[in-house]
Amino acid sequence: MENQSHSTESNDNIKHEPAVSTPIGSEFHYAGFWMRFWAYLLDLAVVASLNSLLIKPIFHLAGISRGDGFFSPYTIVTVIIFYGYFVLMTKYFGQTLGKMVFGLKVVSLKDSTLTWPVVLFREGVGRYISKTVFLLGYLLVAFLPKKQGAHDYYADTTVIHEGTISR
């Protein structure tokens, strides 16, 4: 019994990275570039799988040509799937499947919950802005103190390690 209490005392002496306090009263650790990168790659695989398993067969069975243009029906539907996946998963779960696997979560720096306008801006407009600036918007995660990409910065959100939330 004495050894057990001694071992918990030694665990308390372990130094951890300092938690960051936010305006909403939480303390957490920001997710860095590489964790977010791997989660995003997994999300891209999920979206590509959805398109391959659902959209391609539907277009094939309906006899609709996939087309080559930016405004082809196939491209429009796959873009809707892409943005819909990120918007709906972030709004309803605060995380996509990729973020779930890596234990990450999107949080608002202003409010206690993610609102529709914030999610729509972050996932729709913000991602478009980040991609059109030649991925520099995503590289900001490596350099900004709150580990925010351009889409996070504009939407007042960030991505954290889910296990470090204390409210």
UniProtKB/TrEMBL annotation:
Pfam families reported for this sequence: RDD
Highest taxon of source: Bacteria
Compartments, record wording: Cell membrane
One Gene Ontology cellular component annotation held by this UniProt entry: plasma membrane
Domain annotation RDD: ranges: 30-155
PANTHER family: LMO1584 PROTEIN, PROLINE-RICH ANTIGEN HOMOLOG-RELATED
Protein name, entry field: RDD family membrane protein YckC
